[in-house]
Amino acid sequence: MFKPGVTIWYSVKSLKDTIHFYKELLGFELVFHDADSGMAMVNTTTKDCIIGFSEAEEVIPSTSSTVFEVYDIETSRRSLEQKGVTFIGETETVPDMAKLATFVDPDGHSLMLSEELSPL
Amino acid sequence: MPILVSLEKCRGRFTPIQHHLQISPGRLSDNLKRMTESGLLRHLSPYERRHPALPEYVLTEKGRLFREAALMLQAAELELGYGRLSAKAWNMPVLLALHYKHEHFQDIRQALQQVTPSMLSARLGNLHELGAVDKQLIAQPRPSFLYHLQQPAKRPIHRLADNLDSIV
Fold first, then answer.
1. Rounded Cα distance, B86 and B93, in Å
2. Is the domain of B160 the same as that of B91?
3. Are A43 and A58 in contact (CB under 8 A)?
4. A–B: how many Cβ contacts below 8 A?
5. Second label for B76, Cα 20 to 30 Å away, from A12, A116, B97, B113?
6. What is the DSSP secondary-structure string of A84-102?
7. CATH number, domain at B127?
């Protein structure tokens, strides 16, 4: 029934700030950008996993997390912090499952790094 | 009026409207707020929107009626050829009042009710300079001006009045 892939959409205040964050800081590829309609999309490092952004007058930061898998969470976290990315709290561990570190984009949308501890 | 006309074309979203109309975010925000308070628009909260690409604002039934009127006004402006007359308050109501044969300054003022004498005087003066309105000095019973639509303005304003009548 479902095609492979997933797209996540966020309302954002400033497309410019958002593109800077996801492209320059996280390193994702910008695959669509239309300034007139205030919309853009980035490709994550996973095929067909896209994040879309649409400018809105009013934005409520999302508390559900988009989770990016990394090989080494502490190294990844340090690297992003050095670029100015804001993390919330300490890196947490879900025993036998994953290490998790929460960070936010310019609109306060919750994002997360995850290092798998044991395969599901 | 430009917001009413362009809202649906811009899919009811703030950024496309702002780019389309080339106005500052603050000014657009103020206008949208006033239009929402007047019952012309409904502002969908972030919790009501099912997708970030869906409208932030939609026209209400009253808004749709006013958009029809706005489109009619735009068509009349185009036909008149004096530029965007509706960008200045009272221009179009003054022309409509003249169409309905309110010819004396006080008659026009009474017909429009909320217009101040200085505003009405300024608008009649501007419309006269543009060539849309003719003013004629009469001596009796006391010296005063009579205002009429100039011939080229009669047909567009007549059509506008008929069109507006048809939707009220």
1. 9
2. yes
3. no
4. 51
5. B113
6. TPEEEEEEEEETTTEEEEE
7. 1.10.10.10
Domains of chain A: 7-116 (3.10.180.10)
pTM of the model: 0.80
- Same domain, yes or no: B110 and B163: yes
Q: How many CB atoms lie within 10 A of CB B10?
A: 21
Number of domains in chain B: 2
DSSP B24: -
Domain that holds residue B97: 86-167
| Judgement on whether residues B53 and B91 belong to the same structural domain of the protein | no
Residues B47, B114 share a domain: no
- Residue B70 included in any domain: no
What pLDDT does A120 receive?
A: 63
Helix axes B151-167, B91-99, angle to 10 degrees: 100
**Within an 8 Å CB–CB cutoff, is residue B14 touching chain A?**
yes
pLDDT band at B33 (very low <50, low <70, confident <90, very high): very high
Residue B59, C-beta contacts closer than 8 angstroms, at least 6 positions apart: B4, B7, B8, B40, B41, B42, B67
Same-domain pairing of B117 and B163: yes
pLDDT of residue A96: 84
Q: In what order do the strands lie in the sheet with A39-43?
A: A6-12, A49-55, A39-43, A29-34
**pLDDT of B21 strictly over 80:** yes
- Chain A residues closer than 8 Å to B53 by CB: 9, 39, 52, 54
Residue B81 binned pLDDT confidence (cut-offs 50, 70, 90): very high
pLDDT tens digits, A62-119: 888 899 999 999 999 999 999 999 999 999 988 888 899 999 999 999 999 999 987 7
| Average pLDDT, integer, range B133-162 | 91
Q: Which of B7, B11, B15 to mutate to test the interface with A (most CBs of A within 10 A)?
A: B15
Q: What CATH number is associated with residue B28?
A: 1.10.10
